[in-house]
Amino acid sequence: MARSGSRARGCRAAGALISVVACAVAGALTGCSTTQQEAARLQLNSARIRASEGRIRVTAPGQAVRVVKVALVAGAGQTAFVVRVQNPTRRPVSDLPISVGVRAGATPRLYVNARSQAEDSYFDAHLPPVAAGAALTWVYTTSRHLPAHSRPFAIVGDTPSPPAPTPAPPPVIRASAVGAGGPSLAVALHNLSSLPQYQLQVYAVAQRAGRYVAAGNLTVAHLGSQARRTLKLSLLGSLDHAHLQVEALPTIFQ
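Above: the chain's sequence. Below: its structure in token form.
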């Protein structure tokens, strides 16, 4: 009987092991999350919130991405900085610090995004993921008064803060404009992945004859896995006869 009992316990143990393996395989196939993975996502979001409470000022450009173009779009007492960056490397990058501001004549640089009091403002001074060999158009909006005839600048550093995993390919978040009325744009979002997103970044830019004529940005505090939402994005400038592009950038990668 003792031997039979040992075999029974062994069978139960083997069954438990098989269940664990099966669960792990199912998780890999379906994208379901473990408690540890969920905790890691929350820890990353908390670390980003803490980082946003400090001052970010990049004074020298790094080598991870190149700033291709910087432009200003003004309207309704606000100004949008539109920054086009290119990742020339063979690996994706994310959470790189970025500083934007203006220069007027021989005066020192005026940094405008060094500090923010908003809780979900981390990506006001950091880049979302930029895929290997790809480009990204980042948007930052400020109500700060800027000197007349000033020239915009953007500087991107090399060191992520805090470090974040950037597997390839990143989760796909579909974004599309579903209506524009006055200074706002209705944007429909669909998280096609099983990964919930925190501080999801949504950027809208419009060009006419190669010139940025409208821009806006939106931070979505949370978008659940496979979730859909339609939100309003404040837009500066004019969409008349312009080509509009809306993009949602994931911020959680595993």
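Residues 2-32 form one domain.
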